[in-house]
């Protein structure tokens, strides 16, 4: 449509033949695309600066946490006289690899304590996963009289400090002829309140409709547990396995009380056997043994880290 001057009105008002049809958007001002691109670029720069502002302190904190490990590795490659020299030399001129051969195959070899620790940790993890899973499922999904009070009473036992139970446990295990055996370390670690609590909280978050549908199909309670709920609990089981393994691997107090024979010592007890001629700690040998002792924990964490992080994230969200 034209006016008296011959100018097309639709072009002047921005609603011409090409812009009035279905799907046509509003007319953009010149330079509108450039402004949007600049805003996106500024937003990207702000996000990048925000990540750096959070990332740099976290990197510094992580390096501070790694410093003791770096000192441990450095000291494990030095003779004892250079362990505490100031200023410290982080990289020794001539690494002393003999510290590792002495620790592994010398007079006070850690191979036997290492094997004892592996034996105790594996059985404790298997026992803990079995008992915590069954007990957690029972407290979460099974209906029986007194379920709530029994669970509260079980939780209340965690309020008793573990040190108060050392003497009763010592007397009890001595009467059962378990004193100075590895079973004195394994059996108490198979039943923990925290493991049962974690598994109960996981199972209670799972929908009951799964069990109801399975019961209608004729499944037994154990089949419901083993075929429906247990396969979905691998993340929480991995997290519990890592925690139990670390607790067992680093446990020093229990072996100190319940073991007296050097051939039964676990790794934390074996680390105390590296002394010099004056009876003081031999830093080079002790640090070499410590480096070897953390290898299994690193391997376990690297294998299960994704499931561990997933379980912790799911627990935090719930």
From TrEMBL:
Record-linked Pfam families: BPD_transp_1 (PF00528)
Domain ABC transmembrane type-1: 114-304
CDD domains given in the database record: TM_PBP2
Bias kind Gly residues: ranges: 15-24
Keywords: Cell membrane, Membrane, Sugar transport, Transmembrane, Transmembrane helix, Transport
UniProt cross-references to PROSITE patterns, sorted A to Z: ABC_TM1
Topology class, membrane: Multi-pass membrane protein
Segments crossing the lipid bilayer: 52-73, 151-171, 183-203, 224-249, 280-304
Subcellular location: Cell membrane
Protein's UniProt keywords contain Kinase: no
Region of interest (Disordered), residue spans: 1-33
Similarity field: Belongs to the binding-protein-dependent transport system permease family.
Name of the protein described by the UniProt record: Multiple sugar transport system permease protein
């Amino acid at each position: 449509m034209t006016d008296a001057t011959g100018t097309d009105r639709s072009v002047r008002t921005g609603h011409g033949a090409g812009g009035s049809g279905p799907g046509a958007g509003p007319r953009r001002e010149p330079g509108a695309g450039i402004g949007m691109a600049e805003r996106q670029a500024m937003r990207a720069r702000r996000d990048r600066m925000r990540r750096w502002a959070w990332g740099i302190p976290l990197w510094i904190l992580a390096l501070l946490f790694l410093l003791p490990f770096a000192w441990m590795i450095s000291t494990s490659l030095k003779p004892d006289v250079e362990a505490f020299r100031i200023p410290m030399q982080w990289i020794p001129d001539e690494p002393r690899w003999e510290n590792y051969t002495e620790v592994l195959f010398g007079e006070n070899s850690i191979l036997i304590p290492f094997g004892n620790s592996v034996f105790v940790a594996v059985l404790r993890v298997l026992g803990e996963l079995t008992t915590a899973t069954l007990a957690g499922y029972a407290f979460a999904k099974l209906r029986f009289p007194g379920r709530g009070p029994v669970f509260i009473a079980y939780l209340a036992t965690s309020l008793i400090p573990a040190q108060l139970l050392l003497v009763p446990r010592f007397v009890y295990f001595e009467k059962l002829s378990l004193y100075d055996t590895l079973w004195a370390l394994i059996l108490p670690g198979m039943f923990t309140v925290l493991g049962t609590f974690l598994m109960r909280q996981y199972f209670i978050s799972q929908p009951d409709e799964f069990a109801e549908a399975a019961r209608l199909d004729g499944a037994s309670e154990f089949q419901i547990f083993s075929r429906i709920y247990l396969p979905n609990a691998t993340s929480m089981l991995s997290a519990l396995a890592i925690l139990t393994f670390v607790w067992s691997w680093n446990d020093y107090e229990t072996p100190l009380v319940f073991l007296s024979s050097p051939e039964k010592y676990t790794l934390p007890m074996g680390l105390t056997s590296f002394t010099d001629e004056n009876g003081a700690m031999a830093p080079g040998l002790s640090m070499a043994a410590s480096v070897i002792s953390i290898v299994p924990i690193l391997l376990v964490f690297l294998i299960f880290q994704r499931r561990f992080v997933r379980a912790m994230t799911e627990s935090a969200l719930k």
